[in-house]
Amino acid sequence: MTASQEYDIGVAGQPWGPAENAQWLARQQIQRSYQQQVLSRLEQVAPGFTRQQYGELDYRQYGAESYPLYAFSNGLAVDKVTVLVTGGVHGYETSGVQGAIRFLQTEAANYSDHFNLILLPCISPWGYETINRWNPQALDPNRNFTADSPVAESAAVVNFLLQLSLPVLAHIDLHETTDSDNSEFRPAKAARDGEVNTNWDIPDGFYLVGDSEKPAADFQQAINLAVSKVTQIAPADADGCLIGEPISQPGVVNYPKKSLGLCGGITDAPYVTTTEVYPDSPHASPEQCIVAQVTAIVAALEFLKSKGY
């Protein structure tokens, strides 16, 4: 880790108040369209999948839109196990959103007879449009997947999943790690919280974040093996770490997901992973990142089938 320059909002060492939050929000601009790049593409998904609106984010007070939130599923049959796929928890992580859409368009039908599949392709549409990690209140959805969440994006997902009548066997949460994590989002977080920022080395490649309470090492290994044929698996840094955490096996670190309020801890699924790709790498293209996300989902499903599920 290395120290970084101070962020230019707020006073060093003092957490933000309403004025600083407003100053940050005033900088955020719509840069792309949820309607055109997400919803229009979701009009063509695998046969047998239905769309359900599970919430709406009314952000007109922030100069944006009112965003409908959609889940896609092939039904919940009692004789099939259930797999959850989430994308766009952080809206700026493009391949997570587009990977979920691509899976729905190309691979989902191949597994529809075997699994109950539930996909939430874009949990944070305002973040998608502004290419942002936070929501308009400068809150990170991925630390707020809790029963009493103050973050509307997270609360909508929590409430939706509470309605499920069947347990979830596996959850694949699609993410990216970008250069902007170090140039913008980590410095902004430290300033917001009145802390000193330190930056990680951005891992150059694909890696996974398992759950330290249920690491499922063979599950993670199977996914990385499949993805390694699409793009490189991120090597550990000089300290044997990825994003500041010691690796548990090549290309894998573990976090206590439920206690941190992470999306990956939202269910009691025994098989949980968070994918991370590096779209700014000289060794990968945006298309490779999308394909890597689809490959990870497919590898997870193939692993579950190999275990007799």
TrEMBL record:
A Pfam match: DUF2817
Domain Peptidase M14: 30-309
InterPro entries: DUF2817 (IPR021259), Peptidase_M14 (IPR000834)
Entry coiled-coil feature ranges: none
Family, per entry: Belongs to the peptidase M14 family.
Official protein name in the record: M14 family metallocarboxypeptidase
Lineage: Bacteria, Pseudomonadati, Pseudomonadota, Gammaproteobacteria, Chromatiales
